[in-house]
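Worked example 2:
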Amino acid sequence: MQSTFFAAINQLCDEKNLPRDVVMETVKAALRAAYRKDYGNRDQNVDVDLDEKSGNITVYLIKDVVEKVEEPEAQITVKEAGKYLKTPKVGDEVRIDVTPIGYGRIAAQSAKQVIIQRLQEAERELMYHTFKDRENELLNALVHRVEYNQVYIDLDKITTILPPDQQIPGERYFAGQRIKIYLDKVIRTTKGPQLLISRTHRNLVRKLLELEIPEIKSGLVEVKAIARLPGLRCKIAVSSNDAKVDPIGACVGQKGVRVQNVTEELNGERIDVIQWHDNPLQFIRASLSPAKITHIRVDEKIRRASVYVAEDQRPLAIGKQGQNVRLASQLTGYEIDILDAKDIPEGAVEESPEQTSSTPTSVAPPKAKERVELISSLEGVPSNIIERLAEANLTNVEQLKGLSAKDFTMIDGVTDEEALMLAEALKKVK
């Protein structure tokens, strides 16, 4: 009959998905260390036998047979070896039973911490080799437990942590919940291998789209760029490698069912699908949808675009809390300034950077009243409000013209009182 000790080892192997031979060697190493600490010394060559049927633990001191003993802890004479071997000779190895009385109980206590540490190391190594080749993959995971803002995730019997900064803001997690996560990297640290998993990484959206949309999986439709504000909104730019395939239609699906499945997996995150363009002007125009753009000037050298819109299109171009312009900037790789259409320079012609030099497109230089005036010059506006405007890509006064106090309240962190303060400060600008 199998002992309780070995039954526990078998259960441990099953639960942690660890090779049994690795666990057994770990246990033996712990028992050897415990014996040297309590009964012997570090110079002794000690071996341990485990009898799975009886559960007995036997400790052996191993010595080499020599003519003259120079190292008593590791050597024994031929005459002394005769006590343990029938016909000993020089070069033989003697195994001497040195098991202390009641060693099983004592060893279990002494070796407990060593065994736990070694098993944790073995578990981490198994985790590293299991997931190292699965970087940049979408994984199905199970929420094991939630402690405050730490979410513990089960991945094939291995538990790892989904850090707070990689969790979708506002998403609630509970034990037993099934979620999809993105495995970014597997790295080695001083504390052992770690899995860098995420629910906020932009590639999570890419992998979910591949899962839901066969055209992306097969390569007919290509995801060229992704910009994301996790839990709020996401913009993806797609193009088709087949003239017969509409990339936006393929992604959206009939009645929006395909993109809706991705939205549900991302806790209701809104997804906008736009057409990719090689021409920066067209791409920036598309990325700012649903706003209608009047005019665009692009400075390719510093990767900055001045986008002029009508007054009624300004809130749409900026978006709630600056979401639309921030995502468009991430998607295109250009810093985007939203300006008033009435301030378009005289004689300005909208051209792509490929058609002009690296300087912004403009036939006539801007008039004096059109010079750029930074928002930091506004009188009576505290620096904390200036910082919030800058985070929403609103960096100069021209961008604020035409916005009402109500529009300012849509910017993240701006209160009703601060919005009124901004509106009053703008009235003083000539």
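Confidence is low (pLDDT under 50) at residues 351-372. The CA atoms of residues 165 and 200 lie 8 Å apart.
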